[in-house]
Amino acid sequence: MPNFPNVIKSKLPKVGTTIFTIMSALANEHKAINLSQGFPNFETSPELISLVNKFMKKGFNQYAPMQGLLSLREAIAEKMLGLYSVSYSPDTEITITAGGTQAIYTAITAMVKEGDEVIIFEPAYDCYAPAIELQGGIPVYISLKSPDFHIDWEEVKRVISQKTKMIIINTPHNPTGAVMTAADMKQLEKITSNTDIVILSDEVYEHIIFDGLKHESVSKYPKLAERSFVVYSFGKTYHTTGWKMGYCLAPANLMTEFRRVHQFLVFCVNTPIQHAVAEYMKNKDEYLNLGAFYQEKRDRFIALIKGSKFTYVPASGSYFQLLDYSKISKEKDTEYAIRLTKENGVASVPNSVFYHNRLDLHLLRFCFAKTDETLEQAAEKLCAI
Ligand SMILES: Cc1ncc(COP(=O)(O)O)c(C=O)c1O
Q1: Where do the CATH 3.90.1150.10 domains begin and end in the chain?
Q2: How far apart are CA 24 and CA 34, in angstroms?
Q3: What is the CA(125)–ligand 1 centre distance, in A?
Q4: Which residues line ligand 1 (CB under 6 A)?
Q5: 129 CA distance to ligand 1 centroid (A)?
Q6: Does residue 299 carry a pLDDT above 80?
Q7: Buried (b) or exposed (e) across 39-63, using 16+ Cβ within 10 A?
Q8: What angle do CA 151, 179, 285 make, to 5 degrees?
Q9: How far is the CA of 234 from the centre of ligand 1 (A)?
Q10: Where along the chain do the CATH 3.40.640.10 domains lie?
Q11: Percent over 70 (pLDDT), the chain
Protein backbone atom coordinates (compact mmCIF):
# COMPACT_ATOMS: atom_id res chain seq x y z
CA MET A 1 0.00 0.00 0.00
CA PRO A 2 1.34 3.47 -0.74
CA ASN A 3 1.75 5.66 2.34
CA PHE A 4 -1.09 8.14 2.63
CA PRO A 5 -0.65 10.87 3.50
CA ASN A 6 3.12 10.72 3.74
CA VAL A 7 3.20 14.03 5.62
CA ILE A 8 1.88 12.47 8.87
CA LYS A 9 3.85 13.80 11.82
CA SER A 10 3.54 11.47 14.79
CA LYS A 11 2.19 12.99 17.99
CA LEU A 12 4.33 10.49 19.91
CA PRO A 13 7.41 10.11 17.70
CA LYS A 14 9.52 8.46 20.42
CA VAL A 15 7.00 5.71 21.18
CA GLY A 16 7.68 2.33 19.59
CA THR A 17 6.69 -1.22 20.53
CA THR A 18 6.67 -1.43 24.32
CA ILE A 19 9.34 -3.43 26.12
CA PHE A 20 6.60 -5.62 27.62
CA THR A 21 5.55 -6.79 24.16
CA ILE A 22 9.18 -7.26 23.11
CA MET A 23 10.18 -9.25 26.20
CA SER A 24 7.04 -11.42 26.14
CA ALA A 25 7.61 -12.20 22.43
CA LEU A 26 11.24 -13.04 23.16
CA ALA A 27 10.19 -15.24 26.08
CA ASN A 28 7.79 -17.15 23.80
CA GLU A 29 10.36 -17.51 21.05
CA HIS A 30 13.01 -18.90 23.42
CA LYS A 31 10.57 -20.81 25.65
CA ALA A 32 11.82 -18.74 28.59
CA ILE A 33 9.99 -18.37 31.88
CA ASN A 34 8.19 -15.05 31.59
CA LEU A 35 8.60 -12.89 34.67
CA SER A 36 8.59 -9.74 32.53
CA GLN A 37 5.02 -8.51 32.18
CA GLY A 38 3.07 -7.82 35.37
CA PHE A 39 0.24 -10.29 35.42
CA PRO A 40 -0.62 -13.33 37.57
CA ASN A 41 -0.29 -16.73 35.86
CA PHE A 42 -2.78 -18.32 38.24
CA GLU A 43 -6.58 -18.29 38.02
CA THR A 44 -8.95 -15.77 39.50
CA SER A 45 -11.65 -16.89 41.92
CA PRO A 46 -14.19 -19.30 40.33
CA GLU A 47 -16.87 -17.54 42.39
CA LEU A 48 -16.13 -14.21 40.71
CA ILE A 49 -16.19 -15.84 37.28
CA SER A 50 -19.56 -17.47 38.09
CA LEU A 51 -20.92 -14.10 39.16
CA VAL A 52 -19.93 -12.49 35.83
CA ASN A 53 -21.55 -15.45 34.08
CA LYS A 54 -24.68 -15.11 36.18
CA PHE A 55 -25.11 -11.44 35.29
CA MET A 56 -24.48 -12.11 31.60
CA LYS A 57 -27.12 -14.84 31.61
CA LYS A 58 -29.54 -12.58 33.48
CA GLY A 59 -29.28 -10.17 30.54
CA PHE A 60 -27.10 -7.39 31.95
CA ASN A 61 -25.32 -6.99 28.64
CA GLN A 62 -26.07 -3.43 27.54
CA TYR A 63 -24.46 -0.06 28.35
CA ALA A 64 -23.93 0.76 31.99
CA PRO A 65 -24.49 4.28 33.34
CA MET A 66 -21.69 6.65 32.22
CA GLN A 67 -20.19 7.03 35.71
CA GLY A 68 -20.56 3.30 36.53
CA LEU A 69 -23.19 1.19 38.29
CA LEU A 70 -24.51 2.78 41.45
CA SER A 71 -24.20 -0.51 43.39
CA LEU A 72 -20.49 -0.69 42.54
CA ARG A 73 -19.86 2.97 43.36
CA GLU A 74 -21.62 2.42 46.68
CA ALA A 75 -19.50 -0.65 47.40
CA ILE A 76 -16.35 1.40 46.67
CA ALA A 77 -17.51 4.25 48.93
CA GLU A 78 -18.07 1.73 51.73
CA LYS A 79 -14.65 0.18 51.17
CA MET A 80 -12.92 3.59 51.31
CA LEU A 81 -14.74 4.40 54.54
CA GLY A 82 -13.73 1.07 56.07
CA LEU A 83 -10.09 1.20 54.97
CA TYR A 84 -9.17 4.87 55.13
CA SER A 85 -12.04 6.45 57.15
CA VAL A 86 -12.80 8.76 54.24
CA SER A 87 -16.13 9.56 52.68
CA TYR A 88 -16.48 9.79 48.87
CA SER A 89 -19.91 10.41 47.36
CA PRO A 90 -20.97 7.61 44.99
CA ASP A 91 -23.00 10.21 43.06
CA THR A 92 -20.39 12.83 42.39
CA GLU A 93 -16.95 11.57 43.42
CA ILE A 94 -16.49 8.01 42.09
CA THR A 95 -16.24 6.86 38.45
CA ILE A 96 -15.70 3.32 37.14
CA THR A 97 -13.06 3.12 34.40
CA ALA A 98 -11.53 0.69 31.93
CA GLY A 99 -8.63 -0.12 34.24
CA GLY A 100 -6.26 2.18 36.07
CA THR A 101 -4.75 3.19 32.72
CA GLN A 102 -7.92 4.84 31.48
CA ALA A 103 -8.39 6.60 34.81
CA ILE A 104 -4.84 8.00 34.58
CA TYR A 105 -5.27 9.08 30.96
CA THR A 106 -8.62 10.71 31.72
CA ALA A 107 -7.38 12.63 34.76
CA ILE A 108 -4.35 13.93 32.83
CA THR A 109 -6.47 14.86 29.81
CA ALA A 110 -9.00 16.66 31.99
CA MET A 111 -6.37 18.73 33.79
CA VAL A 112 -3.25 19.28 31.67
CA LYS A 113 -3.17 22.03 29.05
CA GLU A 114 -0.53 23.08 26.50
CA GLY A 115 2.66 24.15 28.29
CA ASP A 116 1.66 22.82 31.75
CA GLU A 117 4.40 20.99 33.64
CA VAL A 118 3.77 17.66 35.35
CA ILE A 119 6.24 16.19 37.84
CA ILE A 120 6.93 12.47 37.42
CA PHE A 121 9.22 10.37 39.62
CA GLU A 122 11.48 7.96 37.77
CA PRO A 123 11.59 5.05 37.32
CA ALA A 124 7.94 5.54 36.37
CA TYR A 125 5.13 3.37 35.08
CA ASP A 126 5.11 3.92 31.35
CA CYS A 127 1.69 5.46 30.67
CA TYR A 128 2.17 8.81 32.43
CA ALA A 129 4.51 10.69 30.09
CA PRO A 130 2.74 9.90 26.76
CA ALA A 131 -0.60 11.01 28.21
CA ILE A 132 0.96 14.32 29.31
CA GLU A 133 2.68 14.87 25.96
CA LEU A 134 -0.52 14.21 24.01
CA GLN A 135 -2.08 17.19 25.84
CA GLY A 136 0.91 19.41 24.98
CA GLY A 137 2.08 19.18 28.59
CA ILE A 138 5.71 18.87 29.67
CA PRO A 139 6.86 15.97 31.86
CA VAL A 140 9.39 17.14 34.46
CA TYR A 141 11.39 14.16 35.69
CA ILE A 142 12.83 13.61 39.15
CA SER A 143 14.82 10.44 39.92
CA LEU A 144 13.91 8.43 43.01
CA LYS A 145 16.95 7.97 45.24
CA SER A 146 18.68 4.57 45.45
CA PRO A 147 18.88 2.10 47.00
CA ASP A 148 15.38 2.35 48.49
CA PHE A 149 13.97 4.66 45.77
CA HIS A 150 12.69 7.40 48.08
CA ILE A 151 11.61 10.90 47.02
CA ASP A 152 13.99 13.80 47.65
CA TRP A 153 11.48 16.46 48.67
CA GLU A 154 14.08 19.24 48.51
CA GLU A 155 14.47 18.47 44.82
CA VAL A 156 10.71 18.55 44.39
CA LYS A 157 10.64 22.03 45.96
CA ARG A 158 13.38 23.14 43.57
CA VAL A 159 11.62 22.01 40.40
CA ILE A 160 8.13 23.28 41.24
CA SER A 161 7.38 26.36 39.14
CA GLN A 162 4.45 28.60 38.23
CA LYS A 163 3.79 26.14 35.41
CA THR A 164 3.52 23.02 37.62
CA LYS A 165 -0.02 21.73 37.13
CA MET A 166 0.23 18.22 38.51
CA ILE A 167 2.41 15.85 40.53
CA ILE A 168 2.02 12.12 39.87
CA ILE A 169 2.83 9.72 42.69
CA ASN A 170 2.64 5.92 42.74
CA THR A 171 2.61 3.88 45.93
CA PRO A 172 3.24 0.93 46.26
CA HIS A 173 5.53 1.55 43.35
CA ASN A 174 6.03 -0.18 40.03
CA PRO A 175 8.81 -1.05 39.17
CA THR A 176 10.78 -0.59 42.44
CA GLY A 177 8.39 -2.00 45.06
CA ALA A 178 8.99 1.14 47.18
CA VAL A 179 6.25 2.41 49.47
CA MET A 180 5.62 6.04 50.46
CA THR A 181 5.46 6.78 54.19
CA ALA A 182 3.27 9.05 56.31
CA ALA A 183 6.24 11.46 56.41
CA ASP A 184 6.25 11.55 52.59
CA MET A 185 2.56 12.41 52.58
CA LYS A 186 3.13 15.23 55.08
CA GLN A 187 5.90 16.62 52.87
CA LEU A 188 3.63 16.47 49.83
CA GLU A 189 0.92 18.21 51.81
CA LYS A 190 3.29 20.98 52.89
CA ILE A 191 4.77 21.51 49.45
CA THR A 192 1.43 21.72 47.67
CA SER A 193 -0.43 23.83 50.24
CA ASN A 194 -1.15 27.34 48.94
CA THR A 195 -0.67 26.16 45.34
CA ASP A 196 -3.10 25.07 42.61
CA ILE A 197 -1.16 21.85 42.01
CA VAL A 198 -3.34 18.79 41.41
CA ILE A 199 -2.14 15.34 42.53
CA LEU A 200 -2.65 12.14 40.60
CA SER A 201 -2.13 9.27 43.01
CA ASP A 202 -1.70 5.87 41.37
CA GLU A 203 -2.58 3.39 44.13
CA VAL A 204 -3.36 0.31 42.05
CA TYR A 205 -1.23 -1.88 44.38
CA GLU A 206 -2.91 -0.54 47.57
CA HIS A 207 -3.38 -4.04 49.04
CA ILE A 208 -0.05 -5.49 47.94
CA ILE A 209 2.11 -4.19 50.78
CA PHE A 210 4.42 -6.15 53.07
CA ASP A 211 6.23 -6.44 56.39
CA GLY A 212 3.47 -4.80 58.42
CA LEU A 213 3.64 -1.52 56.45
CA LYS A 214 0.36 0.35 55.94
CA HIS A 215 -0.73 1.81 52.62
CA GLU A 216 -0.68 5.62 52.84
CA SER A 217 -3.47 6.72 50.54
CA VAL A 218 -3.65 10.43 49.69
CA SER A 219 -7.35 10.08 50.50
CA LYS A 220 -6.45 9.77 54.21
CA TYR A 221 -5.01 13.28 54.21
CA PRO A 222 -7.80 15.87 53.80
CA LYS A 223 -5.46 18.58 52.48
CA LEU A 224 -4.19 16.15 49.83
CA ALA A 225 -7.55 14.50 49.10
CA GLU A 226 -9.10 17.88 48.20
CA ARG A 227 -6.66 18.22 45.26
CA SER A 228 -6.25 14.55 44.28
CA PHE A 229 -7.41 12.04 41.72
CA VAL A 230 -6.90 8.59 43.28
CA VAL A 231 -6.67 5.62 40.94
CA TYR A 232 -7.32 1.92 41.65
CA SER A 233 -7.51 -1.27 39.59
CA PHE A 234 -9.70 -4.35 40.09
CA GLY A 235 -7.23 -6.14 37.82
CA LYS A 236 -4.53 -6.06 40.50
CA THR A 237 -6.86 -6.83 43.40
CA TYR A 238 -8.77 -9.74 41.87
CA HIS A 239 -6.08 -11.27 39.57
CA THR A 240 -8.07 -10.11 36.53
CA THR A 241 -5.71 -7.79 34.64
CA GLY A 242 -7.32 -8.84 31.33
CA TRP A 243 -10.70 -7.47 32.38
CA LYS A 244 -9.36 -3.88 32.44
CA MET A 245 -11.59 -2.58 35.22
CA GLY A 246 -10.70 0.13 37.70
CA TYR A 247 -11.94 3.36 39.22
CA CYS A 248 -11.08 6.91 40.06
CA LEU A 249 -11.98 8.98 43.11
CA ALA A 250 -11.80 12.75 43.36
CA PRO A 251 -13.67 15.64 44.99
CA ALA A 252 -16.78 16.64 43.04
CA ASN A 253 -15.25 19.67 41.29
CA LEU A 254 -12.37 17.60 39.92
CA MET A 255 -14.60 14.62 39.16
CA THR A 256 -16.94 16.83 37.07
CA GLU A 257 -14.00 17.61 34.77
CA PHE A 258 -12.91 13.94 34.79
CA ARG A 259 -16.37 12.80 33.68
CA ARG A 260 -16.47 15.39 30.88
CA VAL A 261 -13.55 13.52 29.31
CA HIS A 262 -14.58 10.02 30.41
CA GLN A 263 -17.94 10.19 28.65
CA PHE A 264 -16.32 10.81 25.28
CA LEU A 265 -13.39 8.47 25.80
CA VAL A 266 -15.30 5.27 26.66
CA PHE A 267 -18.68 6.56 27.90
CA CYS A 268 -19.00 3.54 30.21
CA VAL A 269 -17.36 0.19 30.97
CA ASN A 270 -18.28 -3.52 31.07
CA THR A 271 -21.74 -3.99 32.60
CA PRO A 272 -21.83 -7.65 33.79
CA ILE A 273 -18.38 -7.34 35.39
CA GLN A 274 -19.50 -4.23 37.30
CA HIS A 275 -22.50 -6.16 38.69
CA ALA A 276 -20.31 -9.11 39.60
CA VAL A 277 -17.60 -7.06 41.31
CA ALA A 278 -20.18 -5.04 43.28
CA GLU A 279 -21.42 -8.32 44.75
CA TYR A 280 -17.99 -9.88 45.15
CA MET A 281 -16.63 -6.85 47.05
CA LYS A 282 -18.82 -7.87 50.00
CA ASN A 283 -16.15 -10.49 50.69
CA LYS A 284 -13.64 -8.19 52.36
CA ASP A 285 -11.17 -11.00 53.15
CA GLU A 286 -10.37 -11.29 49.46
CA TYR A 287 -8.62 -7.91 49.42
CA LEU A 288 -7.59 -7.82 53.08
CA ASN A 289 -5.55 -11.02 52.65
CA LEU A 290 -3.88 -9.98 49.42
CA GLY A 291 -0.80 -8.50 51.12
CA ALA A 292 -0.09 -11.73 53.00
CA PHE A 293 -0.69 -13.77 49.83
CA TYR A 294 1.89 -11.78 47.85
CA GLN A 295 4.32 -11.43 50.75
CA GLU A 296 4.59 -15.21 50.76
CA LYS A 297 5.40 -15.13 47.03
CA ARG A 298 8.00 -12.37 47.50
CA ASP A 299 9.60 -14.28 50.38
CA ARG A 300 9.60 -17.53 48.41
CA PHE A 301 11.21 -15.89 45.38
CA ILE A 302 13.87 -14.18 47.50
CA ALA A 303 14.62 -17.36 49.46
CA LEU A 304 14.92 -19.32 46.22
CA ILE A 305 17.49 -16.94 44.69
CA LYS A 306 19.53 -16.52 47.89
CA GLY A 307 22.41 -18.58 46.54
CA SER A 308 22.56 -16.64 43.24
CA LYS A 309 24.87 -13.78 42.24
CA PHE A 310 21.95 -11.33 42.08
CA THR A 311 21.59 -8.79 44.90
CA TYR A 312 18.44 -6.96 45.98
CA VAL A 313 16.56 -4.77 48.43
CA PRO A 314 13.35 -6.72 49.19
CA ALA A 315 10.26 -5.05 47.66
CA SER A 316 8.02 -3.40 50.28
CA GLY A 317 4.98 -3.59 48.02
CA SER A 318 3.65 -4.32 44.47
CA TYR A 319 4.33 -7.70 42.83
CA PHE A 320 7.72 -6.78 41.43
CA GLN A 321 11.23 -7.44 42.70
CA LEU A 322 14.25 -5.58 41.31
CA LEU A 323 17.44 -7.64 41.09
CA ASP A 324 20.91 -6.12 40.66
CA TYR A 325 23.17 -8.09 38.31
CA SER A 326 26.38 -5.99 38.75
CA LYS A 327 28.24 -9.05 40.09
CA ILE A 328 27.43 -10.97 36.91
CA SER A 329 27.86 -8.46 34.09
CA LYS A 330 28.56 -4.81 33.27
CA GLU A 331 26.34 -4.90 30.17
CA LYS A 332 23.52 -2.37 29.74
CA ASP A 333 20.34 -3.66 31.32
CA THR A 334 18.51 -3.78 27.96
CA GLU A 335 21.25 -6.01 26.54
CA TYR A 336 21.54 -8.19 29.64
CA ALA A 337 17.75 -8.70 29.84
CA ILE A 338 17.75 -10.00 26.26
CA ARG A 339 20.74 -12.28 26.91
CA LEU A 340 19.19 -13.58 30.13
CA THR A 341 16.06 -14.51 28.18
CA LYS A 342 17.88 -16.14 25.28
CA GLU A 343 20.73 -17.90 27.10
CA ASN A 344 19.37 -18.50 30.59
CA GLY A 345 15.65 -18.82 29.91
CA VAL A 346 14.21 -16.13 32.21
CA ALA A 347 12.50 -13.00 30.87
CA SER A 348 12.49 -9.77 32.91
CA VAL A 349 12.17 -6.04 32.21
CA PRO A 350 15.26 -3.78 32.24
CA ASN A 351 14.76 -0.99 34.77
CA SER A 352 16.12 1.72 32.44
CA VAL A 353 12.98 1.56 30.27
CA PHE A 354 11.13 3.23 33.13
CA TYR A 355 13.38 6.32 32.74
CA HIS A 356 13.38 8.83 29.90
CA ASN A 357 17.18 8.88 29.68
CA ARG A 358 19.03 6.56 32.12
CA LEU A 359 21.43 4.01 30.63
CA ASP A 360 23.76 3.23 33.52
CA LEU A 361 21.58 0.87 35.49
CA HIS A 362 22.19 -2.77 36.31
CA LEU A 363 18.74 -3.63 37.56
CA LEU A 364 16.08 -5.94 36.15
CA ARG A 365 12.43 -6.14 37.22
CA PHE A 366 10.95 -9.57 37.90
CA CYS A 367 7.21 -10.15 38.45
CA PHE A 368 6.56 -12.65 41.25
CA ALA A 369 2.77 -12.86 40.69
CA LYS A 370 3.36 -16.42 39.52
CA THR A 371 2.67 -19.95 40.69
CA ASP A 372 5.18 -21.48 43.10
CA GLU A 373 6.20 -23.86 40.36
CA THR A 374 7.02 -21.01 37.95
CA LEU A 375 8.99 -19.17 40.64
CA GLU A 376 10.95 -22.34 41.47
CA GLN A 377 11.80 -22.99 37.82
CA ALA A 378 12.88 -19.36 37.27
CA ALA A 379 14.99 -19.31 40.44
CA GLU A 380 16.76 -22.53 39.49
CA LYS A 381 17.84 -20.90 36.22
CA LEU A 382 18.90 -17.68 37.95
CA CYS A 383 20.94 -19.59 40.54
CA ALA A 384 22.73 -21.51 37.79
CA ILE A 385 24.31 -18.30 36.42
C1 LIG B 1 1.67 1.49 38.57
C2 LIG B 1 0.57 1.05 37.67
N3 LIG B 1 -0.43 1.91 37.42
C4 LIG B 1 -1.44 1.59 36.61
C5 LIG B 1 -1.51 0.36 36.01
C6 LIG B 1 -2.64 0.05 35.09
O7 LIG B 1 -3.64 -0.69 35.65
P8 LIG B 1 -4.75 -1.39 34.72
O9 LIG B 1 -4.18 -2.68 34.24
O10 LIG B 1 -5.92 -1.54 35.62
O11 LIG B 1 -5.02 -0.44 33.59
C12 LIG B 1 -0.50 -0.58 36.25
C13 LIG B 1 -0.52 -1.91 35.58
O14 LIG B 1 0.46 -2.57 35.44
C15 LIG B 1 0.57 -0.22 37.10
O16 LIG B 1 1.58 -1.08 37.36
Answers
A1: 19-44+288-383
A2: 7
A3: 8
A4: 38, 99-101, 125, 170, 174, 202, 204, 233, 235, 241, 244, 246
A5: 14
A6: yes
A7: bbbeebeeebeebbeebeeeebeee
A8: 160
A9: 10
A10: 63-283
A11: 98
- Domain 19-44+288-383, what architecture? Alpha-Beta Complex (3.90)
pLDDT for the residue numbered 112: 98
- What's the N-to-C CA distance of the chain in angstroms? 47
pLDDT at 8 over 80: no
Q: Which strand (E) or helix (H) includes residue 258?
A: helix 252-265
Which of 149, 174, 365 for mutating ligand 1's site (highest number of atoms within 8 Å of CB)?
174
The phi-psi region of residue 361 (left if phi > 0; otherwise alpha if psi is between -120 and 50; otherwise beta) is beta
Centre of ligand 1 to C-alpha 5, Å, is 34
Q: Dump pLDDT digits (tens) for 41-59.
A: 999 999 999 999 999 999 9
The CATH code for residues 63-283 is 3.40.640.10
Q: List the beta bridge partners of residue 105.
A: none
Of 104, 205, 236, the residue with max ligand 1 atoms within 8 A of its CB, to mutate for a pocket test, comes to 236
pLDDT band at 15 (very low <50, low <70, confident <90, very high): confident
What's the 62 CA to ligand 1 centre distance in angstroms? 26
pTM, 2 dp: 0.97
| DSSP reduced 3-state for 349 | strand
Nearest residue (by CA) to ligand 1, atom 4, is 100
Give the SS3 label for residue 214.
Answer: coil
Query: How remote is the CA of residue 376 from the centroid of ligand 1, in Å?
Result: 26
